[in-house]
Amino acid sequence: MTVRPDDERLGPAFVKLAAILLVGIMAPVFDLTIVNVAVATIGRDLHASVATVQWVMSAFLLAFAMVIPISGWAMGRFGGKRVWLVALGLFVVGSVACSVASNMDSLIAFRIVQGAGAGLMLPIFQNLIVEAAGGRALGRAMALATLPALIGPMLGPVVGGLIITHLSWRWIFWVNVPFGVAGLWWAWRALPAGRGGVVAQRLDILGVALLSPGVAALIYGFTEVARKGGFAQGAVLAPITLGVVLLVAFVLHALRSREPLIDLRLFGKRSFAAASSLLFLSGFALYGALLLMPLYYQQLRGQSALVAGVLLVPQGAGALLTRGLSGRLTDRIGARPVVLVGLALIIAGTLAYTQAGLHTSELLLACTLIVRGAGVGMMTIPATATAYLGLRPDRIPHASSTTRLVQQIGGSFGTAVLAVILQTQMAAHAGSSAGLALAFAHTFWWSVALAALAVVPALLLPSHMALRRTPREKVAGEATP
Fold first, then answer.
1. Topology of 265-481 in CATH?
2. Which fold has domain 1-198?
3. Contacts of 238 by beta carbon, 8 Å cutoff, 6+ apart
4. Per-residue pLDDT tens for 344-387?
5. How much is the pTM?
């Protein structure tokens, strides 16, 4: 008998667990973007150059990326609850230390502690949500799991702008502490203990030595692209080349290893491979636009960082509007049609910016941002849910680590590519406001084209028949890689 999605409801236990995790995860998710608007103020206060102060962001991102690969192993070895408490504790300690940092060196060191905690938390958060769902209503489960990732980048700059405008930059980090402490207390009291020690897998030391530095080098290279003026620079090419070499070496090692750090055989499943490709390209749609749109408002329209952040809020509102709907539709009709509609909305919402100039109505742009945000929600949630279809419980940690890594690399790559395009266009059209408007218009056209590229993996996502499987089909699916 076919299992109907309407019968696969997420019970009170799931909702309680999700609430516990959401309290803890909100601070690190907001921290990924909230600090951006404070970097210039921090540099002035601590008497640091631009080249030095950018490490406030880079150190966090590199630490974040380096610990993601070990999150799956840590959860299997020690249990989700223990690792969650340790990771959240690290983030809280790092936040307090950052808020009292006396110089740039100590601030960068404490940002590494913060990044390590956040890098462990996000895959484990996603992992615990999927485990609690138990294979039921994955679309609705992912609507909850992806909620912080959808609204954090939208509201983070606004919160950061308000703090910088009315308080010291140190409150950027103090604001994390109440969420962290409340999350620690509630998780310690009520989070299920999990199954630590059930998976007696040894840590793949060689895999860690190849994958973590490889990802960090790759992301570091991408973050240097805009600062160094393009990809054709030694300071950019060297880390990117090193990262690619280490990642290729990891792939060769993982395919031969019996217990790899990340199980690359997951990519043998068409649904996982398609979902991962889509999540990589979602970095262009989400994080690339988060670079372009604030710059459009600040550099072309002359708005402050706070006003630019407020003008981006409609995109977050659009994502919230479709969050629940996209989860339910994924469970009912499958991921493919939902994602294709989402991509159409992203493209439609971005087209207005290809025509925008100095005097384009901000109300019109706000309306198109709602459409664009709705599309982002309808693309991200089904893709994330699809990545877990048919997986055995012991493979869920691998899937969580892999999808998180793919999104992180995609976001960094997408931001770097669009930064180079914008920089090239601005150089070609320098000298007037009309030329600057044309530079942004051309770059937004590239953003549209990159979003359209995601149609290819979207067409490879499973149909609704793949989501409505019989119990026998589920068992068969879990027997495959």
1. Growth Hormone; Chain: A; (1.20.1250)
2. Growth Hormone; Chain: A; (1.20.1250)
3. 221
4. 999 998 888 888 877 888 889 889 989 988 888 888 888 888 87
5. 0.74
